[in-house]
Design a protein that fits this description.
Number of domains of chain B: 2
Largest sheet of chain B: 7 strands, parallel
Strand content of chain B: 5-15%
Structural class of chain A: alpha/beta
Structural class of chain B: alpha/beta
Shape of chain B: elongated
Radius of gyration of chain B: 22 Å
CATH class of the largest domain in chain A: Alpha Beta
Oligomer: heterodimer
Number of helices of chain B: 17
Shape of chain A: globular
CATH class of the largest domain in chain B: Alpha Beta
CATH superfamily of the largest domain in chain B: Glycogen Phosphorylase B
Strand content of chain A: 5-15%
Distance between the termini of chain A: 44 Å
Largest sheet of chain A: 5 strands, parallel
CATH architecture of the largest domain in chain B: 3-Layer(aba) Sandwich
Strand order of the largest sheet of chain B: 3-2-1-4-5-6-7
Number of helices of chain A: 19
Chain lengths: 419, 403
Amino acid sequence: MVSVCFYFQVHQPYRVRKYPVFDIGKKTDYFSDNSESNLNNEKILKKVATKCYLNANKVILDLIKKHPQFKVAYSFSGVILDQFIEFYPEVLDSFRELVKTGNVEILSETYYHSLSFLFDKEEFKEQVREHNKKIKKLFDYTPKVFRNTELIYNNDLAKTVEEMGYEGVIAEGADHILGWKSPNFVYQPLNSKIKLLLKNYKLSDDIAFRFSERSWESWPLTTEKFSEWVNGHNGSGDVINLFMDYETLGEHQWEETGIFDFLRALPQKILEHPDNNFKTPSEVIRDYPSRGELDFPYFVSWADVERDLSAWHSNQMQQSSMNSLYALKEDVLKTKDPEIIKTWRKLQTSDHFYYMCTKWFEDGDVHKYFNPYESPYEAFINFMNVLNDLKLRVSKKEINENSVFPEEFKKYPEIEGID
Amino acid sequence: MEFFQKRRVRILMFGWELPPFNSGGLGTACYGLTKSLSNKGMEISFVLPKKVNLNLDFMKLIFGETDDMPMNPLFSNPYLSSKSSKEALKSKSLYYANSLIGEVLRYASVAGDIAKKENFDVIHAHDWLTMRAGIEAKKATGKPLIVQVHATEFDRTGGNNNQLIYELEKEGMEAADIVITVSNYTKGKVVEHYGINPNKIRVVHNGVDFEDYGVNELSELKRKNKIVLFLGRITLQKGPDYFIYAAKKVLDYMEDVLFIVAGSGDMQEFMINKSIELGISDKVLFTGFLRGADIEKAYKMADVYVVPSVSEPFGITPLESISKGTPVILSKQSGVSEVINHCLKVDFWDVNELANKIISVLQYPSLKNCLKEHGLMEVKKITWDAPAQRCIDIYNELLEVKC
């Protein structure tokens, strides 16, 4: 028996606009680029929605109607849900329709797609709570399985989310952790009861990265080939976890590559083998026992060849900007200003630090491709200037709080998204 | 590739100057290129217009100076600024026979005879100063001609072209079998302004040999101030005016920043007057023309080196600065920005953005350190080895067509 488990990551950051030092103290529209550049969040969201989200949702909905056994899972960052509401509500509607079919699971994550777990566990938990509230509100759904930003994972993360009540957690099936073990089974973290699902990075990346690569020996990838590879694990594995960015469908792999045709035809091919089926992460956890303990003493992620934290936290710019950001926490929360707190959290989105990564030459052009700034240095400058403005606003707020200030202005509505 | 390596190409190369008898980057570039070509087994006969006391073990030197047609030393400096070259041309007595152009033509007049005496496979001429010489050599021998464009008249004058120089350039590029440009940026100019077929243009980025004078002492100025450096000829091409305007914006934002202007040129007076007018004359220091160890000292005392060139075909100094550990803010209108990633880039006219980036480097130590650390690694890879190999490939490309 082999179960195929799809999980798609749905996320776009609020990119920081070009923000010169001279704007500090004057402008607070950090995320409002309205140029033709790739820093224009509305433009990007609409483009990705048109090329990927709306098309892919339609294909998946049709597949669910055609094959009631077909199932998928999504993880939405809170910041993309905010952007759907702000820029393109129809996309949210189409995801809601999918969730209503009952064949779709939603995973839990930090609202701001942040690296907060690395810096501040309380902040991390707060963001997970905020995400849960949002998912409940928009989809009337309560996630049971947790996935951390960029699949950043270690024993400690597993322990923390287990304590928060989750039944399962997701990680990268990195070779240096697995050794001879297969990613195609359910495991348990060291000294924990929570169940662990591992991404089969080979088969996932065959779709996500190699699908249109003509120099790849298996190009063109057909559903026949792919289902054969899946069938090959029959008898030697319980589950094939295919985890990838949702943007793979139509955005990273353009429609012209045939990615949607591949997706349309895949379930039928997989189901042709009588022992195969599709399961969501929580069904996999329910139906398969753990085959052993896995020790992840160090952080592992799904990024780059290193599968570590270096994409976000390897150079001095990344380290110092993150430290400055998290150092503001107390002062920011003290303002009780929902707008300031939300902004501070939006700046925690991991993408801001990814854009500052200088590992370009080792990792080919992947970073360059995903970077809307001309260079990591530009990303850093804009981020730091914005952070300094935020700092200024926070300090002004403190002065105001201490001075005479009408009482009614001190009361703020509950922190919520832009809905 | 292997095939190319085996063939020993004999090159007749027309240059204008070689270090230490040089006034600018052309001599340095010719030296680096020929040395590396020679290391790769090429045989070079290098022609200079006038006799200099120079002996090189890696190539043969030929001097194009005869006793009856001596070179006028006044005009061996091709880096006349827009103003001074215009003035030179205004003066009728200097206009032709005695001018720099006169020297160029005299050089060309002996090139044919020189070529007939030498054994070689290809002719390689550098810039307008030697293109006519290259053409004469081609006429005399029928060998293929490569002209290499290190700078165009448009870069030097910002569009106030000397028509004669422009025509010499155009004629050279048209007569050449292949035109080499030192950047894609320059290739664009050659296509746009000279109407040269892009198919016969090859881009060969320069390399650089770093000199190290071992300067370690740091200026007293550095203790209390951040230092922003401008270094180069103070001429229109180098964008000194944008530097001054950016300095004003930076100083409005933060104190204790000094702006050091190292170099000389016809816009120095403008810069001094402008800094007085803007009320920042106590923050802008002029060092005059620097050489060798003093240049290294300037790089090392600076927190950031700014190159706001209006038009820079390549530009070696940014690489030198990075090699000394000083980050660079570079005009996008420069060829060198095609070969380095680990620097900050701006459009030369965008004074606000230039000031923003200067402030950012001065304010954020992690930015400066990252630029420095990655920049050092990156410039180490920029040697003359790759450009020499590209030239060899081009020679072979021409010789194969011939066969």
